[in-house]
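Internal tracking record. Fields below are filled automatically when a chain is submitted to the structure queue. Please do not edit lines marked as system-generated. If the sequence contains nonstandard residues, flag them in the REMARKS field before resubmitting.
Queue: standard
Priority: normal
Entity type: single polypeptide chain
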Amino acid sequence: FGWHPHLHTLLFTRHPLSKAQIDVLLQFLYGRWSDAVVAAGYRPPHSEHGLVISRGESAGDYISKICHQGLGHQGLAAEISQAGSKKGRLASRTVPQIIDDWGDYRRESDRLLLLEWLTGMRGARHLTWSKGFRTQYLPAEQPAQDSDPSTAEFVCQFTGQQTDFLIQYDPTLRWRIPEAAKKHGRPGVMAELASFNFDCQNVPARSPPQAAA
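SYSTEM-GENERATED OUTPUT FOLLOWS
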């Protein structure tokens, strides 16, 4: 029971590894990982299910499946950036499913789970490259088209206290408010806040920042 944090790691070697070499690598990685988990105050991970090494063909099949199901690169991007969107196994639930249940049933246990998840995932990265690896094999990333703040539409701003209140009241507002702003601008945000009688007068609007001369 509880959360299921895990990593999918692609390890590139100069030459294919034999089964004996994979077994040695598995024991080495498991020992390092198990020691770190125990040092953090938890029980050792399961020796058979805690760490699995598969050959690269499996990764290729997995990526091909995602791209086929998700319209090419959009599917792969969604798999990486929306890791919480898949359905949980057996009777477990993913974060979006917990959000839906909180919206439908307002169970306090679901609210506490969402707050715990938000706290734990704050600042977490969904994709990490080894130093220099991306630069060596992939082209440079293109800058975002809307990176110029002078061209952005400023909708509204919240103080830290207001943000804490909103998330404590309903953790789903962390997603619902940005979605309302994206679809309907400031009126959409105000409508979302008015749905639970939030004092909209305390959400000031202001002009977008001026570009530096």
